[in-house]
Amino acid sequence: MIIQTIAEKFIRNENFLCCVKILVVNCGSTSIKYKVFSYEKGEFDLLCSGIVERIGEEVSYFRYKSKRGRIEYERKIKDHSEGFGHVLRALTDPEKGVIEKPREIVGVGHRVVHGGEEIVEPVVIDEKVEEVIEKYQVMAPLHNPANLVGIRILKEIFPDAVHVAVFDTAFHATLPEEAYVYAIPYEYYERYRIRRYGFHGTSHGYVARKAAEILGRPLEELRIITCHLGAGCSMAAVKYGKSIDTSMGLTPLEGLVMATRCGDIDPSIVYFLVKWTGMSLDDVYKLLNEKSGLLGISGISKDLRLVKEAAARGDRRAELAIRIFAYRVKKYIGAYAAAMGGVDAIVFTAGIGERAPWMRELILEGLEFLGIKIDTKKNQEPEKYGGVVSSDDSKIKILVIPTDEERAIAEETVKRIRTSR
Q: Residue by residue, what is the 3-state secondary structure of 300-326?
């Protein structure tokens, strides 16, 4: 087959410079996010992007955007298999598509949330890898099952492509024992592998590398605190290119206050909620994951923008939710500066991190003793200043860097294709 010939040349010849196409997929429990990149002569170019939302509901949403046009509509899409059918039709659309046939896709990069201790780097997917993803479904019940569904469907749609899994947990595989072992009887780590794993690793790694590029310094010489602040929030201490600590733990529930997740709490709260309210453990687990965070404190919304609007109207709980959110990030900045013996740069990324300058200022307020000086003008329009929003004389550089997990997954996919045989 033609694509196999192209793939073989691409894999075996480092100097083979033909343009190849990489599909990147993030398959959620009720959604499919996707992008297609072209890769040629070491450069990536985004050809199209899109999303299928509310899969399985009465009304689903399909969106597709390429350089050749847009496709958008609403209709019921019953499952992921049907959703990927819509994706394939858009990709091969005669007028707006980016491929003529499925065999033009040489590699498919899959975002997978949890790989445990068994997979600590991006890997070409085989049966063993699928077994590991399935094994860790219990620790990522909202993500790993959907990730696996996407892998199996796309293997059928693109049988000639090399399928690569890029794990959220992989970047944090460098955590030292003192950072990942919990202070419970050690036998539970040995038996069940209960430990800190961390998530958003693809994002943390990507923005740390970009920060080093922007600052014109080797990543291996920098101590960077990365703040991924969106619906899900996490931070990482990246010391000389390696993650040495991160805020999320065994699951994405630990750490910062998030849209609907509580973050750090006294574990005894679970006991007393069960004892006092009669809720089951499953009920409490759902409460902490889906009804807490900004939503739980404010009682208004999980969307920080709506919480801010309510706070501006004088709503006390909304104002409190904002202060708690900022305070938790501030605490982790101090902790990670101590863990790394100092800090050279702090990076903000993801929806809130990138698009809420007022929140960045609130988080950094009071940290002037560390040598932090934010430039309010730059902070309003970071893209005009190369992403650097600190003043020229700030000891610690503050950066705003849009995350691009899909681009990072595409890069890792190309690397694995080159080394696969």
A: CCCCHHHHHHHHHCCCHHHHHHHHHHH
Residue 391 token pair: 């003043």
Quick one: tokens of 88? Answer: 């394939």
Per-residue model confidence (pLDDT) at position 413:
93
Residue 17 pLDDT class (50, 70, 90 cuts): very low
Catalytic residue list? 168
Measured CA to CA, the distance from residue 80 to residue 332 in angstroms comes to 38
Superfamily of domain 216-405: ATPase, nucleotide binding domain (3.30.420.40)
Q: Where are the domains of the chain?
A: 2-167, 216-405
Bridge pairing between strands 32-40 and 20-27: antiparallel
Asked, colleague to colleague, whether 2-167 and 216-405 share their fold, the answer is yes
Q: What are 245-263's pLDDT values in tens digits?
A: 999 999 889 999 999 999 9
* Cβ-based neighbour number of residue 272 at 10 Å: 11
Burial class (CB in 10 A: 0-12, 13-18, 19+), 174: middle
Name the β-bridge partners of 40: 43
Beta carbons of 308 and 322 less than 8 angstroms apart:
yes
Q: Are strands 105-112 and 162-167 parallel, antiparallel or unpaired?
A: parallel
- For helices 2-12 and 405-419, the axis angle rounded to 10 degrees is 90
Cα 236 to Cα 126: distance, rounded to the nearest angstrom: 30
Nearest CA among 164, 87, 70 for reference residue 126: 164
**What is the pLDDT confidence band of residue 419, given thresholds at 50, 70 and 90?**
confident
CA distances in angstroms from 164 to 410, 416, 421, listed in the order given: 9, 7, 13
Q: Is 153 helix (H, G, I), strand (E, B) or coil?
A: helix
Cα separation of the two ends of the chain: 17
What distance lies between CA 114 and its chain's CA centroid? 12
Q: Which residue has the higher pLDDT, 19 or 39?
A: 39
- Residue found under tokens 């750090």: 264
Percent above pLDDT 90 for the chain: 79
Tokens 């046939």, residue? 101
Question: Could you tell me the pTM of the whole model?
Answer: 0.88
Band of residue 7 on the pLDDT scale cut at 50, 70, 90: low
The total of other beta-carbon atoms located within 10 Å of residue 81's CB is 15
Just give the CATH number of 2-167: 3.30.420.40
